[in-house]
Design brief:
There is one protein chain. This protein is α+β, with helices and mostly antiparallel strands. It folds into 8 domains: 2-126, no CATH class; 147-176, no CATH class; 183-216, no CATH class; 227-256, no CATH class; 263-296, no CATH class; 307-336, no CATH class; 342-376, no CATH class; 383-417, no CATH class. Helices cover 14% and strands 31% of the residues. The strands form 12 sheets. It has a 3-stranded antiparallel sheet with strand order 3-4-5, with no helix packed on it. A hairpin with a 6-residue loop joins strand 4 (158-163) and strand 5 (170-176). The longest helix has 21 residues, at 74-94. 12% of the residues are buried.
Length: 494
């Protein structure tokens, strides 16, 4: 490590740390503190690292001589450091009277962090007469770090500077290597056209310098569909072309043949009539030119019904004609014979009670009768006897009468006889019988029992009365409390 002495630079290990000359060095004050500070930062380093410390003084070399001499154990290193520093402090105090060292130097040596760490707990005692005031400028230790003063680029190197933060003194510089170019993405400089080549290049991402360049091949034309230039008509040719969809250049031009006429439907121009032909034409649907024409034959007369010119009478002829309902031309004519306007009225037959009338005919115009009506007398009734009908138990009867066989009218009315109704009698008169008997119609039917109270029940048809027939009889034959009648359902005791 180099330091300046009397205008010359020499390594710090060339100084004799035991000589008086060292302590008379004018830069001792600075070197002592720097050396101890550097020792504190590089404690335990190798001898090569100690020798490379910037601005190290003889004190630092003496303090680390044990490491450089190959002392390995921590205890031996510590003992050597204590001895060296005590010697240095003693020498400094001994030379103080001669004025060879300043109070600042002694304070710097003994009060620095490194000196305290090596065993100086407090500054050595000095005579009061030697203590003088010391300015802050006399006590200074370089401190700082490496800073980039010039950034490296792709075209030039950079620089690192070790600079003291307190006094701004530049202690050391070293270069930063020039950077390599970093290739970026390919960028199209000139787009390739249909027939012209393009160009793209690759530049450095850092400095923008062009690194590579290559050619882009022309992509060729992209042909469009056919485009009509001049539309073909029915009688004249047209043309069409294709072009490049990218650059618009015309690629192919071609003639288009005339299409020819296209017939549409027949169009009626004039309707045919009874007196003149009609006309219809055929036109091209594209250009409208008339392509053909046809005549429509005359139509036949459409004859009307008879039209009366002179009305006939009962004694004189009349006249009539027919004509075309379209053009009005006369088609035929004839006379109308004289004749009566005969009206016929139908007669009607006589009935049993009303007269009839024969048919009649007359002329409605001259009121001449051709058939006079003749009354027809009524015929009267044709009677028959209606026998009587006997009434039965369930159906009505009727009396005898007289009625007409032609019109069905009763000349002697019949009257209705009411139904007789059944005459019910108990069968054989026994109390066990379940039926009664009608003597009129010889009909048997079951009794229709109704509750008659505790004494018995009665038939609603023949009115016969019977005693109850109870179930659930006790041992004595008497009905029990829950006995009911088998016929009418009467509850015993209610």
């Amino acid at each position: 490590m180099a330091r300046e002495n009397n205008g010359e630079f020499m390594r710090s290990d060339e100084y004799d740390v035991h000589s008086e000359q060292f302590f008379h060095d004018d830069e001792f004050n600075r070197d002592v503190e720097i050396a101890l500070h550097k020792r504190d930062s590089y404690e335990g380093g190798s001898s090569e690292e100690i020798q490379s410390l910037p601005d190290a003084s003889a004190i630092s070399n003496a303090a680390f001589a044990g490491t450089a001499a190959g002392i390995k154990s921590k205890k031996e290193k510590e003992r050597h450091r204590q001895k060296t520093l005590n010697n240095l402090a003693g020498k400094a105090a001994a030379t103080l009277k001669a004025g060879a060292i300043t109070v600042a130097a002694i304070i710097a040596v003994s009060a620095s962090p490194a000196a305290v760490k090596l065993g100086f707990e407090k500054p050595p005692l000095l005579p009061d007469s030697t203590v003088t005031s010391v300015s802050a400028a006399e006590i200074h230790s370089h401190s700082g770090g490496w800073q980039t003063t010039t950034q490296p680029t792709c075209s030039s190197a950079g620089e690192l500077t070790l600079k003291c933060d307190s006094c701004n003194e530049i202690l050391e510089t070293k270069p930063l290597p020039q950077l390599n170019h970093i290739a970026g993405d390919w960028t199209v400089i000139k787009t390739a056209g249909c027939v012209q080549n393009g160009t793209e290049e690759q530049c450095c991402k850092l400095c923008g310098k062009k690194l590579n360049e290559k050619e882009l091949a022309a992509k060729g034309h992209s042909e469009s569909e056919w485009i009509t230039l001049v539309a073909a008509t029915c009688t004249t040719d047209g043309s069409r072309y294709t072009k490049c969809t990218d650059c618009g250049e015309t690629l192919v031009t071609q003639a288009v043949a005339a299409t020819g006429h296209t017939a549409g439907s027949w169009t009626l121009i004039t309707c045919a009539s009874c007196s003149a032909e009609g006309r219809q034409t055929l036109h091209c649907i594209n250009c409208g030119m008339e392509m053909d024409s046809l005549s429509i034959p005359k139509t036949s007369h459409e004859e009307s019904g008879w039209i009366i010119d002179t009305a006939k009478t009962c004694t004189a002829e009349g006249h009539q004609h027919t004509q075309c309902i379209n053009c009005g031309a006369h088609i035929s004519e004839s006379t109308i014979p004289a004749s009566h306007n005969v009206v016929t009225v139908s007669g009607y037959a006589a009935t049993c009670t009303t007269d009839g009338m024969t048919d009649e005919e007359y002329c409605a115009d001259c009121q001449t009768w051709f058939l006079q009506p003749i009354p027809i007398p009524s015929t009267g009734h044709t009677e028959e006897q209606v026998p009587p009908v006997d009434a039965t138990c369930t159906s009505e009867g009727s009396t005898a009468g007289t009625r007409c066989t032609v019109c069905g009218e009763y000349t002697v009315p019949v009257t209705t006889v009411a139904a007789l109704g059944h005459d019910w009698q108990d069968v054989a008169g026994t109390t066990e019988s379940t039926q009664h008997y009608c003597q009129q119609c010889n009909t048997y039917e079951n009794h229709q029992w109704t509750d008659g109270g505790p004494n018995g029940h009665q038939c609603s048809e023949c009115l016969i009365f019977r005693a109850h027939t109870f179930n659930n009889l006790d041992v004595s034959g008497a009905p029990s409390a829950d006995s009911t009648c088998n016929d009418c359902g009467y509850q015993f005791g209610t």
